[in-house]
Amino acid sequence: MDVETKPVFSCFTRNDFTKGNIRIMQRPENLDLKDYLEQQMEHIREQVGNDRVLLALSGGVDSSVCAALLSRAIPGQLTCIFVDTGLMRLDEGNQVEAAFADKDLDFIRVDAETRFLSKLAAVVDPEQKRKIIGEEFVRIFEEESAKLGYIPYLAQGTIYPDIIESGAAGHENIKSHHNVGGLPEDLAFTGLVEPLSLLYKDEVRALGTSLDLPDYLVNRQPFPGPGLAVRCIGEVTKEKLDALRVADAVVREELDALPQNIAQYFAIMTDTYSVGIRDGKRAYSPVVAVRAVATNDFMQAEYVHLPHDALARISQRITDACPGVSRVVYDITSKPPGTVEWE
Ligand code: XMP
Q: What is the pLDDT of residues 43-62, one digit of tens each?
């Protein structure tokens, strides 16, 4: 493969590296994944030598595959910082940790639920939520990496569509990426390691499988960086998040079992309250919404015509499992005019 990905910078900030790296990346027409993996592993070994590499692992597909690839290429030299924000889905933190238990890397899990929830207290504006979460993530990453001493290389799970959508390599800027793992531009590293940056998502998933990552990590649905905070309308509280996690697990379990191809499906904890009956008494509690969309590119999406018996089971199971939920509704809005997420 005639792709030049050798490091050509020696002492720039992360931002310079990102720009530089993107500029020299050209995707070959017929990319063979086996060759790509071999070539990247060799390249990484040449690039970092015996030095250590740091990765912010979110548990998403890209950073997970990046971690698995690096642990194979440079066993024992990778340190992953996984920040459990308390905004993840049911049991997600444990699943991510378990997936890397047999990999040759240092896994640092930071339990930051209390920190995130106290920063989010009384915040209802979606953009402000995202900003607070992004900033808190960076603060935690900086604190944790400072404890590790100097690590010369930063790894990122950047993939080819990120580069295209960020307007690099001559492409138009469609949207800037604002993941919770977005790191500040003045973090100085000697080099940036981006082993997935020529791959499309389906190739990243296939690579993850070939690197023995579990199916639940490799084939997971997209999940926003700010996590359940953008699916918990109004103030984000532990009580609302706990109920949302249970409702969301029900939705995913029921819709996983359907033969239909649904791109993304989840629950939303709305801030609308409705009257219901619990134990023969009047109750006044929040409404949970269910979202299920079909899409190829997430720029446009259709709501899915779910079978009514599946919807009925979802409603019954959520109201049984979450006594604090009065009612379940199905979102029948396509994108546009709606977006996939509610916030
Ligand atoms: P929207 O809501 O914009 O979502 O129609 C399109 C896709 O992007 C995901 N999404 C995000 N992903 N950080 C992410 O990493 C975010 O802040 C974010 N917001 C939306 C969403 O889940 C859907 O797949």
A: 999 999 999 999 999 999 99
Q: Do residues 57 and 46 touch, judged by C-beta distance below 8 A?
A: no
Indicate the SS3 state at residue 74.
coil
> Which has the closest alpha carbon to 7: 197, 172, 203?
197
pLDDT at 176: 43
| 201 in contact with ligand 1, CB cutoff 6 A | no
pTM of the entire structure?
Answer: 0.88
If you measure from the C-alpha of residue 341 to the centroid of ligand 1, how many angstroms do you get, rounded to a whole number? 6
Sequential DSSP letters for 110-158: EE-HHHHHHHHTT---HHHHHHHHHHHHHHHHHHHHHHT----EEE---
| E-only strand ranges, the chain | 53-56, 78-84, 106-111, 153-155, 191-193, 264-278, 281-294, 302-303, 327-330
8 CA distance to ligand 1 middle (Å): 33
Locus of tokens 């900086």: 142
Pairing of strands 153-155, 53-56: parallel
Size (the chain), residues: 343
- In sequence order, the β-bridge partners of residue 83 are 110
* d(CA 76, ligand 1 centre) in Å: 33
Q: Is the CB of 335 under 6 A from ligand 1?
A: yes
Nearest ligand 1 atom to alpha carbon 335: 5
Average pLDDT estimate for 59-68: 97
Residues 264, 309: contact at Cβ < 8 Å?
A: no
Determine contact, residues 97/107, Cβ cutoff 8 Å. Answer: yes
Q: Which of 13-27, 155-169, 232-246 is least confident?
A: 13-27
What is the CA(60)–ligand 1 centre distance, in A? 13
Q: How many CB atoms lie within 10 A of CB 272?
A: 14
Mean pLDDT along residues 28-51: 93
DSSP-based three-state secondary structure for 300: coil
Q: State residue 331's pLDDT score.
A: 98
